[in-house]
């Protein structure tokens, strides 16, 4: 039998704060594609293999370090919103996933899989993707058969067979038994230790980054899969940070000479970016830090947009017009 939650504990957390995560399921392929695409990569042929309620768009401040993105779950995406005393457990009635079964070896059989697949073409020589794995199985079932698991599998030039590029250093698969408060604890956040108000899962990983060396302008295929292990109870989920799927050129840096379409001008604590007329009025301009995190989103007004840089830390930033084929540009905050 899994855990029971006393109603008194639920009342305590419910009064302590309202969930700040807004989660929307039943997403269109277009909206999923938009949330996936970051700097230097194009995404196409998106497919989702799980019930609509199992995947959602989340946005808001919470114990997670990710404030917006896609969440794939082994149950209900709406159940992810906290407090931690909530019980996130839904039954999809769907099969498991063969790649995750193979990753476990003799360690279990998967159930309730949710799978997102898409093709991409990187402009640079690397592919990166920010994510976090969380679960209701923590911490009670660490070391048990209920070893819920996930993977991000990459195939294409240089990857003859699908390769899990979401493993932590050393090639360890991210699962309940591999990342917790005893093993690889540096990658783990205990959401019950200081009770979480906004995320229902009892624990989750820190914001981790997929890293893969690829060939520029070649087609690649991604498969993101998460599944319950040994039974279909107690949900797990993977959070994919919005717009963090990116492809920088680590060997030579951005080729600014090939980016004539966008121009940036300094105006005090602001940068003004001139946007070509063919870019639709009302489109958003996204600003990312060097780690691929979205730090600012501003709407285009007329033929330009002002970017407030006063509150940004020193470092390099990349600017992209959302849903546009215009190349990105970069600037450095001293």
Task: Please give the structural blueprint.
Blueprint: H1 7-16, E1 22-25, H2 29-36, E2 41-49, E3 55-59, E4 68-73, H3 98-104, E5 110-122, E6 126-135, E7 149-156, E8 159-164, E9 188-190, E10 203-205, E11 208-213, E12 220-229, E13 236-241, E14 263-267, E15 270-274, E16 284-289, E17 294-299, E18 304-308, E19 315-321, E20 329-333
Antiparallel strand pairs: 1-3, 2-5, 3-4, 4-13, 5-12, 6-10, 6-11, 6-13, 7-8, 7-12, 9-10, 14-15, 15-18, 16-17, 16-19, 19-20
β-strand amount: 35-45%
What are the low-pLDDT stretches, counting only 5+ consecutive residues below 50? 1-19, 251-260
pLDDT averaged residue by residue? 84
In N-to-C order, the SSE pattern is HEHEEEHEEEEEEEEEEEEEEEE
What share of the residues lie within helices? under 10%
Radius of gyration in whole Å, from Cα? 20 Å
Instruction: Categorize the overall geometry.
Output: globular
SS-based structural class? Answer: mainly beta
First CA to last CA: what distance? 56 Å
Largest sheet: 8 strands, antiparallel
Number of strands: 20
**Count of distinct structural domains:** 2
Give the number of helices.
3
Oligomeric state as shown? single chain
């Amino acid at each position: 039998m899994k855990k029971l939650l006393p109603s008194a504990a639920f009342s305590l957390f419910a009064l302590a704060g309202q969930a700040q995560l807004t989660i929307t399921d039943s997403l269109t392929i277009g909206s999923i594609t938009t949330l996936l695409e970051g700097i230097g990569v194009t995404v196409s042929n998106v497919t989702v293999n799980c019930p609509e309620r199992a995947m959602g768009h989340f946005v808001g401040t919470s114990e997670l370090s990710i404030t917006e993105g896609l969440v794939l779950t082994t149950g209900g995406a709406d159940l992810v919103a906290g407090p931690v005393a909530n019980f996130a457990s839904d039954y999809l009635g769907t099969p498991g996933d063969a790649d995750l079964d193979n990753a476990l070896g003799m360690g279990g059989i998967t159930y309730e899989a949710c799978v997102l697949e898409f093709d991409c073409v990187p402009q640079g020589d690397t592919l990166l993707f920010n994510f976090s794995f969380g679960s209701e199985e923590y911490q009670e079932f660490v070391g048990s058969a209920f070893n819920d698991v996930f993977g991000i599998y990459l195939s294409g030039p240089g990857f003859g067979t699908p390769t899990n590029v979401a493993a932590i250093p050393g090639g360890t698969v991210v699962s309940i038994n591999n990342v917790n408060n005893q093993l690889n604890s540096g990658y783990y956040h205990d959401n019950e230790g200081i009770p979480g108000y906004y995320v229902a899962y009892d624990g989750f990983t820190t914001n981790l980054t997929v890293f893969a060396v690829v060939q520029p302008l070649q087609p690649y295929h991604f498969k993101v899969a998460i599944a319950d292990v040994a039974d279909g109870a107690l949900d797990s989920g993977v959070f994919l940070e919005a717009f963090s799927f990116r492809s920088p050129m680590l060997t030579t840096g951005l080729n600014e000479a090939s980016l004539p379409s966008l121009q940036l001008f300094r105006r005090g604590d602001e940068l003004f970016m001139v946007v070509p007329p063919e870019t639709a009025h009302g489109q958003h301009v996204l600003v990312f830090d060097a780690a691929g995190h979205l730090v600012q989103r501003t709407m285009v007004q007329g033929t330009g947009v002002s970017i407030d840089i006063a509150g940004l830390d020193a470092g390099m930033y990349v600017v992209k017009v959302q849903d546009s084929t215009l190349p990105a540009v970069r600037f450095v905050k001293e």
